[in-house]
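The instructor's notes for this session suggest beginning with a concrete chain rather than abstract definitions. Hand out the sequence below and ask the class to guess, before any prediction is shown, which regions might be ordered.
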Amino acid sequence: MLEPTLAEVQHMNVRTFNKQTSALALTVAAACVTALPAQAADRAASRQENIGVGTGLVVGALAGGPFGAIFGAAAGAWLGDRYHRQAATNSTLTTQLAESNAERGKLNASVMELEAHGEELTHRLELRTELETQVGFRTGDATLSAETSDELKKLAALASTLPETQVRVSGYADPRGTEEFNSKLSKERADAVAAVLKDAGLDASRLTVEAHGDTEAKAAEGDVDGYAFDRRVVVRIEPTKTEAVAQRQ
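After discussion, reveal the predicted structure:
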């Protein structure tokens, strides 16, 4: 039987080494592939990472043989994991941005609500400072009807809920008759209205009674219909002087 030559022995050793290396590489590669599900269960590995391992394994094997497969699998896993982390970060940032926009929307809605509330308060203040009613009278008369008295009582109740106000009662007359007569008639009309307000519970200290006679009559001479608007008493709820000064400041 012939002894193998040195070259044949070296060739056989190389083949044996390659087989062992290939087996080792395949074992490591199989372990990497087998470990993917366990890795996913252990730390929720991403689909991108698993794809990276498989792709790196194939490309590495084609490019560098068994050792290339091992290196490619490791590199693919690293790249896949990095891609997964970046995607997770982007998802978190997107969620935070959406939450921030939602909070901003709530804040804007709150600001609009406060502005609307402020406008409503301003409007109520304007109504309070400009609230008034007028009472009409027959020619040469200063008496009040039951219906008119009831309306005045309601006004007195409203004024009672606004402690920082005064009630001004101003009497007027049409231009017919003498100045003295009209002045007296307008005073009687204003006193009649003030009496109803006081009887309804409004403190007399909050009442200001004025008589203007025919000094502010606007109807033309002979205008009978226009005279009806001059025979009146105006009741106006006004802020006190102290409150009015504070508002201007």
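Then share the key points. Residues 19 and 25 are 10 Å apart (CA to CA). Confidence is low (pLDDT under 50) at residues 35-45, 243-249.
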